[in-house]
Write a structure and sequence with these properties.
Layout lengths: L2 H13 L3 H8 L5 H23 L2 H30 L5 H8 L2 H11 L7 H19 L8 H24 L5 H22 L8 H29 L1 H4 L2 H16 L6 H17 L16 E5 L5 E5 L15
Helix pairs in contact: 1-10, 1-12, 2-5, 2-10, 3-4, 3-9, 3-10, 4-8, 4-9, 5-12, 6-8, 7-13, 9-10, 12-13
């Protein structure tokens, strides 16, 4: 992966490692519909002016509205609500850890849809190591929750895994702003009625407002532009490997800001996740040159269109000249 790809990968690993905490803070006082509407509305308000300034936005939407609609539904409208609703019953760390299954589902979805991206033994090993690291982190945290919340997180995982394939197949040539801004605006319009009905009776606390703003600005507007560029730079399968880094970021933030203990198991998980991410995002490498095929005869084209067959004879030794019959 290129230096630009690694920068985007590192940025996304951090940016999408913190929304689970912000969502958990927000749903204590506002409904999931309000959370989704707010982050979409804030993101659209920030990105639409830049998308319009680039020019050609209406033409882009008319030409690609079907895959753009599919992306908006699969990446934003459904997963953001199911994840937010699940966090009313699941801890933010548990939700973040479960989302780390996205790369595995992405690989399966890519193969099911006939994706030609070659994985190779090294990248498959990286995916396995990353999953093992996530398992080490997940086991101590899988407490509480109910079947509905787990199903909601599973739906979120499926959406996050399949949406990048739509971008890579149908929207690769669409500028990131032209894709992100209309999709966020559409999602905000869809959730506006539900957000109005479930709006809080009193003004939320400053902590909740800060979480909503952070979700809209950092985890939506900035993150989406960076993520779409990462998909175009590294491919959909490698791009989703950021979900292996996200839980590690969540654990590190908890240890740094909340004085949570760094146990040997957590340190081992860090090592597995880091190694898995490096291997899973590695390029396939140059193809080996094809082995030359020995020819006893070669065909060449003449200027008059005829084909000549040139026979390669073994080199004769000086003492064999004149022998062989006459």
């Amino acid at each position: 992966m290129t230096a630009r790809g690694w920068f985007l990968f590192s940025l996304m690993g951090v940016i999408w490692g913190i929304p689970y905490l912000m969502i958990k803070v927000a749903v204590d006082e506002v409904s999931p519909s309000v959370v989704v509407f707010t982050r979409c509305a804030v993101g659209a308000a920030l990105l639409l002016p830049f998308a319009i300034r680039q020019g050609g936005l209406p033409r882009t939407v008319r030409a690609h509205w079907r895959p753009m609609l599919a992306f908006a539904v699969i990446e934003i409208m459904v997963p953001w609500w199911t994840l937010t609703d699940a966090e009313r019953h699941l801890s933010s760390s548990t939700a973040g850890l479960l989302i780390a299954g996205v790369p595995i589902v992405g690989v399966v979805a890519a193969r099911f849809l006939g994706d030609a991206e070659r994985l190779g033994a090294r990248r498959v090993t990286g995916l396995a190591l990353g999953l093992a690291g996530v398992g080490v982190l997940t086991a101590p945290h899988l407490t509480g929750g109910d079947a509905r919340s787990l199903v909601e997180v599973l739906l979120t995982v499926v959406g996050y895994a399949t949406a990048p394939l739509i971008v890579a197949r149908r929207l690769k040539d669409v500028p990131s702003l032209h894709l992100t801004a209309p999709c966020l605006a559409l999602a905000a319009l869809v959730y506006a009625p539900a957000a109005a009905v479930t709006r809080p009776e009193a003004m939320p606390s400053g902590q909740v407002l800060a979480a909503l703003v952070g979700l809209g600005v950092v985890c939506t507007a900035v993150a989406f532009v960076a993520f779409l560029e990462l998909i175009k730079e590294a491919g959909p399968t490698r791009a989703t490997v950021i979900t292996y880094v996200n839980p590690a970021v969540a654990v590190a933030a908890g240890a740094f800001f909340l004085d949570e203990n760094l146990t040997p198991g957590i340190l081992a998980a860090f090592a597995l996740i880091l190694a898995g991410s490096v291997l899973a995002t590695a390029s396939a490498g140059p193809r080996r040159p094809a082995r030359p095929v020995p020819w006893s005869a070669r065909q060449t084209s003449r200027a008059d269109g005829r084909v000549e067959v040139l026979v390669d004879l073994p080199e004769e030794r000086p003492d064999s000249i004149g022998q062989g019959g006459g």
